[in-house]
């Protein structure tokens, strides 16, 4: 069985861990060998559901287990770096829940360690593996929307307040990773504002504007204290526009053949008249396949073939750079902060073999 | 008839003017005496619909007409100041479409002129007169929501691109006036970002954060280039929260008995646990009365009694101060700009008689 | 002007009459000559809005007016026959609000009279002229949906209770006319149930099933006593399905590429397996043009050219036959009642010249 | 463990069986002892998820197992009678998926057998245990809606076509059980129509009208071949009205303070005028608790205490009587069929001890 299946260890069995265990369990190319968590009740729950999985309160047991090839980390953010680094040092491939680590500095160290050892380091940016985002990316790559004017997203609900990160590290991280994935350029600066309505807690509400080198702009609105759940993204292009509503049961992505028309070329700006064009709306069929299932397949595949994951460590680092710049901007009430530009490594590139 | 009805002149019969003429016409205390517009076709349309109304291409004709007591201005923004000042100098009361004028400086001059002459100067902040906003204000005044945490609004659609003002002067102006009207405090600083997707046009998309002296925050998102029309406002409070959707035919205002709970007093910040509370939702009946009808009644009443209007010149000035500061912030990519604080005159106060 | 414009008289200026007057007024090929109504207040309203239109409390004045070529009738249903017959006898073309008359017998007499005199008799089945229904008809004619399995419609709201007809004569009449218009076959029998919740009033709620010669079925649910307004129609076909929601501001017609698949030909019924197919959804752009404007153009055109209208007297008669049969079925608690089959006259056919 | 937990056997592990096993497993007062199914793959799936549960392809193994006190049946409808009767004869309490059996005759035999042996016979009318239906029942019992005028329901989606029962036995059964549960009277006759769009299959679309002794009426529309899923129920009363949308994530039940008003008492029917009243809307908080969890608790409780279940065999019989009458009406294209009236046994009544 060792030869045919990737041995998986999972650390953390709280909110997200059960989804990881379930998806690795149904993947025929993987096998969950062990799970560690500090809570005995959770470990008992695992044993009842998955009698073949070893449970332990000591993370070290996973690291020492030679049947485990890769570690999936689903613990609070402030523990990510330490747990991931220990896994890499033990020679394990690593999949880490988003965000990868609490700072770009720490993420860089993980990337270096993984690269040095020829191990796969992947961050769990789940939304990149949803059929909806994949469809949107496909439409944008085919330039169905023309030039992209904006990405404008709202992600809010009541809860889950976190203790160790603010709302942008918890929710905006999804949009930042999507923006990096679907646009063919990256933001160069950010202006963000945030507010905290519970004394002693991190910011629970924030608004982020990302500037690009051209007229494209992205805006992300996140809120842990909203009366209703909202997951809506508007993407405007010169030819078409998209409304992506992740709460819609089936028609998640709607493509509008709408826009403005200009009577004269933009050069003669003083002369043109703006017109409005309203055409059909089209909602492509979106597969109901669970994103995490696709992601787990991709992780297993990357480990086996040495391919860089779509959500590689470097991809996670680019996201963290934006989050850090946004946090600095929030502290300065919206003052624009430049974003450090990183070399863009295409997912197609393979890493050097260890 | 002179004694019983206020004589009204309307200048501008494009998009908004017909609504003014119609609402003044059905108000028994007013009479539309004349309308001026530069387009002969529009004037012909008026004559067909309202045979008793004089039409003219010369604004001066209205100013000279002694049967006209008040002028309603519905022309492009850059003409507001000149037309309003001329009307005041001719001794007419004035109702001006929003925004009152293109700068705070010009608005101040109009206020001074009106005050000096004891004339009513009112700005057409129509939303303040909608039954929905009146209901929200009533709920907030009664502290039904507890402490207000945030006001977060989206106002977008495809069109109508304007030439002489950007999208915040056209759309965000509604939210700024609502915020001033329903909250018991005013913003002290603003961070805003905006973008322009049509070369040579003003910004067609903007995001504005308003900071208050306490933890309350307001955010306004406006867009002329959206595939679908959105008019949604979320208001979060410590006790309840509101979703106000102006496109809903009947249930425009929904009050959610939802929120967070804290186990310990906020003082012992390290100890408390956040809980979530989900109770009933309640949508109060909202009268279908047209806002402009109420507004016209209020204008006529203010002129007759000398009462300061709810949307007085000073109220319009406070809005303009925010728009100007937001425009400056947009030019600096979100850098926060303080907002000049003006003395707040309660609507209940009456002005000194001339 | 006589030569170039059709002279129109309108009788009844209550709920629907103002729409007729407005739409005939803006039609360049027609001119509203006079309006009659029994209520002096309504007549005054007309004179204020349309100073060029003569008003009268005597219907006879319209009939005698030689400038009037055609009469549009918008009065209670029980008066339709008498007013329409008088108009035809006075040599006027006639447009009658739906339903054409309270019985098939009376409708037949109107048809005979109009045919004998070579006059246009048209019934105001407004929905046939909506861009949405026109688009649906176009899709069905092109067999985009394959074989039509069903038409299932809900039309409900709070009010307007009528006194002289029950809810099927008021609301289901719309669906019956649409069904006749978009399907290439007509119902052969009907089973209907209805109930009355206000003592002394006609039925305010009804459900109608229409049987066809093949497996196609139509169902219409109507209700004057619904807490919310609903205008939804589902059309199922062997290839595609439609959801038509008339309350949607823009995406009124949605075409779903969904359905079932059979593994084996239907002949070997015991063997096949049913599968489900889910593809894209598509919402064709629907023109915002007002239906009554199109209808008035069509009426004027039919009068001028002698063409049979789409909603001819005979078309109205077929609708009445269904309503009468449905009423009989309601009285018998759903017992099926056959529908008298009438010769189908294609709209393209022209009538014999008088 | 025998003393403290009810031993459960489940037969059938297809669509619904896994839900039963899961809910009995998490109920501390029950223990799933064994599951039988004919498909070895399903049995393997059970063993993986529930290693402590015995699996078998022979139903008899469950009946013979003395650790099993009660049998839950989740197999095709045509097998219900035989399996349930065998279980009762083996002295087991029985919970049967809806509908209880394919005919009233067979259901009566099961009731007799259960009564004779003092065993609990319960039918799995899951909707009766949803928090939404419980809330609606509570509102109706408190007469919040006044007199009930109608219950009008739509239950449609694409699939799941069944082979051995038509759509009313599969979907309308839910509404019939709800109607019996929330109204204080039962239907006396039924008119129904149905159609079949797949040759050789049972009816996939049907419309049912239920008549009551008074003006109350119920209508149920069911469809296996709908492009979109709909689960909507409208309940009209003399004082208030309800819209219950089971697909709404949180606001499933909306109570509208709307209705008609009569100027005169209904006695002087010729004189009154109908008015319309529009007040607030209120959406009570609905618990997110899974219905089957509540149902399983109730079953265990009924077995232990000898209480008649809410969804007792007799309650299931009343539902079957309606389904049979509706089927007869469908065969006669809507002809009304009287419904056999059964003695109503209040859920509060306890059965005679065995």
Outline:
The structure is a homotetramer of 354-residue chains. Chain A is of the alpha/beta class and 354 residues long.
In words, what does this structure look like?
Four copies of one chain form a homotetramer. Chain A is of the alpha/beta class and 354 residues long. Chain A is 31% helix and 29% strand. Chain A has helices at residues 17-26, 40-49, 59-64, 80-89, 104-117, 131-141, 167-182, 291-305, 313-331, and strands at 6-11, 30-36, 54-56, 70-73, 93-97, 121-124, 148-158, 189-195, 205-211, 217-223, 225-237, 241-245, 253-262, 274-283, 337-338. In chain A, the strands form two sheets. A nine-stranded mixed beta sheet of chain A has the order 14-13-12-11-7-10-9-8-15. In chain A, helix 1 (17-26) links the parallel strand 1 and strand 2 (30-36). In chain A, helix 1 (17-26) crosses helix 8 (291-305), helix 5 (104-117) packs antiparallel against helix 9 and helix 7 packs across helix 9. Mean pLDDT of chain A is 92; it is low at 346-354.
Helix and strand element order of chain A: EHEHEHEHEHEHEHEEEEEEEHHE
Structural class estimated from helices and strands of chain A: alpha/beta
**What does the overall shape of chain A look like?**
globular
- The proportion of residues forming helix of chain A, as a percent range, comes to 25-40%
Q: What's the helix count of chain A?
A: 9
Per CATH, the superfamily of the largest domain in chain A is Dihydrodipicolinate Reductase, domain 2
Assembly annotation? homotetramer
End-to-end Cα distance of chain A, whole Å, is 23 Å
| Domain tally of chain A | 2
Average pLDDT metric of chain A: 92
């Amino acid at each position: 069985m060792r030869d045919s299946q990737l041995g998986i260890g999972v650390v953390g069995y709280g909110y997200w861990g059960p989804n990881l265990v379930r998806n690795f369990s149904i993947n025929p190319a993987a096998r969950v060998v062990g799970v560690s968590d500090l809570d005995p009740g959770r470990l008992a729950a695992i044993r009842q559901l998955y009698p073949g999985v070893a449970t332990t309160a000591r993370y070290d047991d996973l690291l020492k287990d030679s049947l485990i090839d890769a570690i999936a980390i689903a613990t609070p953010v402030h523990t990510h770096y330490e747990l991931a680094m220990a896994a890499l040092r033990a020679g394990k491939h690593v999949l880490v829940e988003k965000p990868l680590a609490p700072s770009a500095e720490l993420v860089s160290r993980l990337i270096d360690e993984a690269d040095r050892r020829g191990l796969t380091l992947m961050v769990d940016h789940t939304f990149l593996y949803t059929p909806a985002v994949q469809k949107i990316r496909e439409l944008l790559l085919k330039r169905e929307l023309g030039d992209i004017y904006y990405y404008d997203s709202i992600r809010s609900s009541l809860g889950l307040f976190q203790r160790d990160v603010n709302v942008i590290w918890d929710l905006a991280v999804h949009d930042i990773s999507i923006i990096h994935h679907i646009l063919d350029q990256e933001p160069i600066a950010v202006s963000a504002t945030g507010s905290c309505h519970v004394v002693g807690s991190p910011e629970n509400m924030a608004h982020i504007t990302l500037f690009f080198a051209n007229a494209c702009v992205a805006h992300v609105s996140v809120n842990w204290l909203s009366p209703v759940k909202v997951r809506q993204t508007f993407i405007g292009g010169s030819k078409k526009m998209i409304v992506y509503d992740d709460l819609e049961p089936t028609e998640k992505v709607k493509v509008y053949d709408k826009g403005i028309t200009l009577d004269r070329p933009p050069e003669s700006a003083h002369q043109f008249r703006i017109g409005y064009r309203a055409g059909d709306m089209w909602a492509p069929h979106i597969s109901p396949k669970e994103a995490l299932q696709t992601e787990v397949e991709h992780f297993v595949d990357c480990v086996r073939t040495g391919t860089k994951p779509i959500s590689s460590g470097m991809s996670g680092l680019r996201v963290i750079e934006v989050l850090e710049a946004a946090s600095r901007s929030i502290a300065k009430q919206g003052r624009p902060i430049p974003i450090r530009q990183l070399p863009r490594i295409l997912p197609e590139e393979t890493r050097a073999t260890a």
